[in-house]
Amino acid sequence: MSRGLKGFVARIVMLLCLFLWGCFLVAPVNITGTWMGTMEWTSGPKAGFVDPITLTLVHSDRELTGTVRLPSPGGLSFSLPIVQGSTRNADLFLIARGTNAQVPGNPMVEFQIDGEFEQEVMSGDGTQSIDGKVYAFTWQAVLTTDPVAPAGL
Q1: In terms of Cα–Cα distance, which of 79, 93, 66, 80 is closest to 148?
Q2: Is the pLDDT reported for residue 15 higher than 80?
Q3: Which CATH class name applies to 33-143?
Q4: Distance (Å, whole) CA 76 – CA 84
Q5: C-alpha span between 67 and 29 (Å, rounded)
């Protein structure tokens, strides 16, 4: 290989390495805050209906904690604690579980979502079970509080 060709190949390899290194230095997004949005039911008796949803999230490392506020009959709402939550890259997953004391019999409610987030918007799919009956929905939410700067920046 000629000296000029070796130099050209070395430059290309160096540029490729710099490009790939930059792909790994993406600033982390902290999704701590209050997110308000909607969930559109895709199954069950409310299929096609849209309800409000509020996620109050605390994001630390890859873990999510906080609460989920959901509608209840009579125009009321109730909150469930997040019992399991995580993020990876731009994906999130959470489960919130508890009872709805505003409904006779205090039914057990489990709320589960999978989704993606980007800066101040998130969306995905989910399920809500009420005493074991599972209903599916799609959801979306926007950040309504000021974004939190990632730790260490």
Answers
A1: 66
A2: no
A3: mainly beta
A4: 25
A5: 19
Counting Cβ atoms within 10 Å, is residue 140 exposed (0-12), middle (13-18) or buried (19+)? middle
Report the chain's terminal Cα–Cα distance, integer Å.
45
DSSP secondary structure, 112-147, as one string: EEEEEEETTEEEEEEEEEETTEEEEEEEEEEE-SPP
Residue 36 tokens, joined: 């308000």
CA of residue 48 relative to chain centroid, distance? 22
pLDDT digits (tens, 9 = 90+) for 49-88: 999 999 999 999 899 999 999 999 888 999 999 999 999 9
Q: Which residue has the tokens 């009579």?
A: 74
Q: What is the mean pLDDT of residues 83-108?
A: 96
Tokens of 109: 């409610």
